[in-house]
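Reviewer 2 asked us to include a model.

Predict the structure of this chain.
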Amino acid sequence: MSQLRIALLGTGPWAERTHAPAIAAHPDVEFSGVWGRRPEAAAALAAAHDTKAYAGGGDGEGGPGAGGLDGLDALLAASDAVAFALPPDVQAPLAARAAAAGCHLLMDKPVATTVPGARAVADAAERAGVASLVFCTLRFAPETAAWVEEQSARGGWFTARAHWLGALYGQGASSPYADSPWRREKGGLWDVGPHALSALLPVLGDVTAVTAVRTEPDLTHLVFTHTSGVSSSATLTLSAPVKGAGAGLELRGEHGTEELPEGWGDPADIFGTAISTLLTAARTGEPHACDVRFGLRLTEILAEAEAQITRV
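Predicted model (C-alpha cells):
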C-alpha cells in the first residue's frame, strides 16, 4: 500500500478547515473524493482540493453515480479508507457501511450518541478486519499525547480534575460550529466529554462507575470511579461565558501536581498525525489505543451519564 486512498464524508466547517486540508496535504495519501448530503457543498469542497465530488446514497436520496452505483457506494469503491466529518448519529451507520465495503475508518468523536449505534460500527469494523481510529484530538497532538503517555507510565495518582468549558453558545460568542444541531441538542457532555475521558482513561484506568448532575444552561458535573481505585471529576459545557471559557486537566498524587499542556496546535496538523497513525494500523494490523472499540467505550460511559441526568 504505497498510498492510501482516503475519502471524506462531510462538507461542514470542520471538514473544510481540518479534514480536507490535512488529507490533501498528506504525502502518503490520495484524496479520492468528497461526499456530502448537499451536492453543491461537496462540489465546492472537492474543487478546492482538486478531487471528485459525490452525492446521493447516504440517506436514501440521490440517483446513481459513477459506474451505476449511488454516489456513496461509488466513492467507497474508489477508496481504501474514509474520514468522517458528520454528526455522530449520521456518522455511525455510514461508518458501518464503509467498513462492510472494506474501508478503514477515521472517525470523529463521539462515534455515536447511542450505545447500539456505536456497537454496530465496532462490530462492523471487526467483521471486516479494517483498521479504525477515533479522532480524540489531544491523543494525537504531540505535546498532549506525550503528556498522557508519560503520566500513564508514572502512576501513583490520587485524583484528577478536568474541565472543558466551551463558549460555543455563551452570550456574545460567534463560531461557525454553533450552527451544529447535534451540538445544540447534546451539549458539552457529548461534544467535549470525549476529550476529558480520552485523557482520564489511559492514566487512571477504565470507568467502573459514574455519577452525573446537570444544571442549566448545559453545565454537567461528572464523578468517575476508575479501575485503579482512583476517583476523578469533570465539568463540561458549551455555554460558558466567553471570558470564562477554557479547558484543562490536573492530576494530583505522590509525584505532586501535573497539568495537561495548553495549546494543542493546529487541528489540521493534528489530523495529519491521525492519518499517519491510521496508515500504520492499516499496514501492520496492530490496533491503536483510540480505535473504534475505545470510541464505543466512551459512548457507553457518556450514555450512562446522560441516562442519570434524564432520570432526575
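The CA atoms of residues 152 and 203 lie 4 Å apart. The two ends are 52 Å apart (CA to CA). We have added this to the supplementary material.
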